[in-house]
């Protein structure tokens, strides 16, 4: 398939739309003429001005045009931003560093040129940066922002002392397909432990049965859920139909129609109990908050929509957790909060400075508001992409490096690759990149900074390179090149496609480099979730030197009897690595402050799960990101498989009384949530939990295996599933 390469001006500036979202919008794949969520990073002063403008408190200044053009700020986002402002004042006082401590917020912008112009015009005055954008899914009419008294928010950020033993711990979960009517989440037949439930899917968007309209979403309180449990006794499906979570007339994935649902299993592992046998005090001490992201976002795993959904979910959880704490304690003190998020992203800067990571950091700091670390933690899965061949690391000196990229046939979704350069003080272009379709032996044109490079066949753009330089709050920059290509097969209707096969990404220096550059390449996720109607097929880097053999070593009866590959060692030889490697495959969402990354291991022999992602030995010991968290590997590991012949761990199926098995690091993370909640309730913390973590069998204390920090972090959590193997 021959075509032409052509440069165009980078249409992302100054709005900084995420290239994946911009590509899908430009190609009109799956959506068009819809509002978009734009993420802003603001200084504290600018954040106060924004809040005052939307709440009609005082002069609106630069934000007047936003209001005039129907740009919306969600009530929960308004409150969350007010909490963040108050926490920043409390924690930093007059020493608040404007550019180092930016606050994040999302605005819903209608598809009207004047609204986009008004938003882009805000970047000229200082103290504000537009960092990201994504589609607003759903067609529900958004409610207007109601007036709030900011003083009430300011009073909610108060210093917290030590957390006493037997304190209730709030468990929040962000996941798809959560069976909220399941008996494992009740205190009594008609009394749920789920205090708040937010559904962002809008598959039917009914407003009956106690639903409260959110901004493109619906929420229910415990009272509304209890009323439905009483209305539909012994009929959980009836509850879900009444909530609009099951509707056979709508052609979209509906996890609760299946016997197995990911969110139900994860929540059961984190906070499920048998209400008939468990201590009643414990049931009361584990209140639950649930957010279900848009099912479209969960189905399309290449990240066009998930980041915006996660940020809105965090805003809502922050507000509801603070309200729930006040309700339970009768004071302004906050209860410990643990958020489980088992979604993972394969591509990103992985340095703590992506928009999602910065918002997680803001979320944690706001809830803690100067309190102890155990007051708030976000637990995330380490990722299952160890052997996806999604990560490559290239050394750029003088010669061109070519990275082979295998794109599969019958892929009905776009595919993406991100290339990240190290931090730099220079604004000049350091490398240039070319994309060669299958069968092309010579690169025709290379990318240019702040321009897009399009491959056109006929009248249709089939591939594009976005070459950008992303500013960081520390004053440095990171060059990023995003490669986007169309699907290799149409989705029923005739549309432009690209050839499947072996593509090549050519990278060479754009100038004389003072020293060699080590650059990271990541393929965006594009696989299909459990029971999802996904249409993607995961592309990968097809390096013939990639080690396809077992990457975790040889164990016999719990003892290591074989040597591990240099690719898994903490300090590998420079010549021991192929271009494509398992290191650096950790979840790209997982480097913010207060984030706990959980890997998976096999209980029968304490072997790291073959899919559990790895850290990178070449990463710095301490992050320069917001929280300064270690980047070497995950924090710890929990069981994700019982044995080679018994994969997964037991947990609740969608409906009460059923037991199913699921594996992956997404079921390891909620085990850490459960054990951390018990530790905090007993007066401990994450630090005391790590002190009691077991070392691998066959190794003396203090002498872990070579891949210990890269694959397992601090070590193994004991296997404590929510229900026994005989259930």
The chain-level mean pLDDT equals: 83
Query: Could you give the count of β-strands?
Result: 30
Can you count the helices? 16
Portion of residues in helices? 10-25%
Q: How many domain units?
A: 3
The profile of the biggest β sheet is: 10 strands, mixed
Shape category: globular
Distance between the termini: 57 Å
Based on CA atoms alone, the radius of gyration comes out at 25 Å
Describe the model:
The protein has 727 residues and is α+β, with helices and mostly antiparallel strands. It has three domains: 33-155; 170-385 and 586-699 and 707-712, Peptidase S8/S53 domain (Rossmann fold); 391-545, Jelly Rolls. It is 22% helix and 23% strand. It has 16 helices and 30 strands. The strands form seven sheets. Strands 5, 8, 9, 10, 11, 12, 13, 26, 27 and 28 form a ten-stranded mixed beta sheet that branches. The model is unreliable at 94-100, 549-576, 620-630 and 696-707 (pLDDT under 50).
What keyword list fits this structure?
Jelly Rolls, 3 domains, 727 residues, 16 helices, Rossmann fold, alpha+beta
């Amino acid at each position: 398939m021959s075509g032409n390469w052509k440069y165009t001006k980078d249409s992302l500036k100054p709005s900084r739309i995420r290239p994946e979202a911009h590509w899908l919008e430009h190609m009109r794949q799956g959506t068009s003429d819809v509002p978009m969520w734009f993420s802003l990073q603001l200084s504290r002063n600018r954040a106060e001005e924004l809040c005052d403008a939307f709440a009609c408190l005082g002069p609106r200044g630069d934000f007047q045009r936003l209001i005039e053009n129907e740009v919306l700020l969600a009530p929960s986002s308004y409150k969350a931003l007010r909490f963040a402002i108050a926490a920043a004042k409390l924690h930093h006082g007059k020493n608040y560093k404007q550019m180092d401590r930016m606050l994040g917020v999302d605005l819903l912008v209608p598809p009207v040129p004047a609204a986009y112009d008004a938003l882009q015009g805000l970047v000229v005055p200082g103290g504000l940066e537009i960092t990201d954008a994504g589609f607003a899914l759903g067609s529900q009419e958004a409610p207007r922002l109601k007036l709030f008294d900011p003083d009430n928010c300011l009073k909610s950020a108060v210093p917290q002392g030590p957390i006493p033993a037997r304190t209730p711990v709030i468990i929040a979960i962000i996941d798809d397909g959560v069976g909220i009517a399941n008996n494992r989440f009740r205190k009594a037949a008609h009394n749920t432990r789920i205090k708040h439930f937010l559904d962002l899917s809008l598959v039917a968007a009914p407003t009956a049965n106690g639903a409260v309209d959110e901004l493109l979403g619906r929420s229910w309180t415990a009272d509304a859920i209890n009323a439905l449990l009483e209305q539909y006794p012994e009929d959980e499906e009836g509850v879900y139909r009444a909530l609009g979570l099951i509707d056979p007339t709508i052609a979209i994935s509906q996890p609760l129609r299946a016997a197995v649902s990911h969110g139900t299993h994860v929540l059961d592992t984190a906070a499920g109990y048998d209400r008939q046998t468990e201590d009643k005090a414990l049931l009361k001490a584990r209140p639950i908050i649930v957010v279900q992201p848009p099912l479209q976002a969960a189905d399309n795993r290449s990240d066009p929509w998930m980041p915006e959904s996660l940020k809105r979910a965090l805003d809502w959880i922050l507000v509801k957790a603070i309200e729930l704490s006040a309700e339970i304690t009768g004071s302004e003190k906050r209860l410990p909060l643990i958020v489980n998020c088992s979604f993972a992203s394969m591509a990103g800067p992985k340095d703590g400075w992506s928009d999602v990571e910065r918002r997680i950091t803001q979320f944690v700091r706001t809830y803690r508001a100067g309190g102890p670390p155990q007051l708030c933690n976000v637990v995330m899965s380490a990722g299952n992409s160890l052997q996806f061949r999604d990560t490559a690391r290239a050394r750029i000196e003088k010669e061109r490096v070519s990275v082979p990229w295998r794109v599969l046939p019958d892929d009905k979704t776009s595919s993406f690759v991100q290339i990240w350069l190290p931090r730099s003080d220079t604004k000049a272009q350091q490398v240039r990149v070319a994309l060669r379709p299958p069968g092309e032996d010579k690169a025709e044109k290379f990318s240019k900074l702040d321009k897009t490079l399009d491959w056109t066949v006929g009248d249709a753009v089939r591939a594009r390179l976005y070459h950008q330089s992303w500013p960081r709050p520390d004053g440095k920059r990171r060059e990023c090149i995003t490669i986007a290509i169309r699907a290799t097969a149409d989705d029923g209707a005739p549309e432009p496609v690209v050839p499947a096969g072996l593509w090549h990404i050519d990278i060479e220096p754009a100038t004389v480099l003072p020293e060699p550059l080590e650059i990271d390449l990541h393929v965006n996720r594009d696989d299909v979730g459990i029971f999802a109607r996904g249409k993607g097929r995961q592309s990968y880097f097809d390096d013939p030197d990639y080690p396809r053999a077992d990457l975790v070593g040889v164990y016999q009866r719990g003892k290591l009897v074989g040597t591990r590959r240099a690719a898994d060692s903490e300090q590998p030889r420079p010549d021991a690595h192929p271009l494509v490697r398992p290191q650096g495959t950790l979840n790209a969402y997982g480097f913010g402050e207060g984030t706990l990354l959980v890997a998976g291991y096999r209980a029968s022999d304490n072997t790291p799960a073959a899919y559990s992602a790895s850290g990178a030995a070449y990463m710095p010991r301490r992050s320069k990101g917001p929280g300064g968290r270690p980047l070497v590997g995950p924090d710890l590991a929990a069981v994700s498989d019982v044995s080679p012949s018994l994969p997964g761990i037991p947990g609740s199926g969608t409906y009460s009384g059923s037991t199913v098995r699921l594996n992956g690091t997404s079921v390891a993370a909620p085990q850490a949530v459960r054990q951390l909640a018990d530790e905090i309730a007993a007066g401990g913390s994450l630090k005391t939990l790590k002190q009691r973590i077991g070392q691998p069998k066959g190794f003396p204390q203090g002498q872990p295996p070579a891949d210990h920090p890269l694959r397992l972090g601090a070590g193994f959590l004991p296997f404590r599933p929510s229900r026994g193997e005989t259930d």
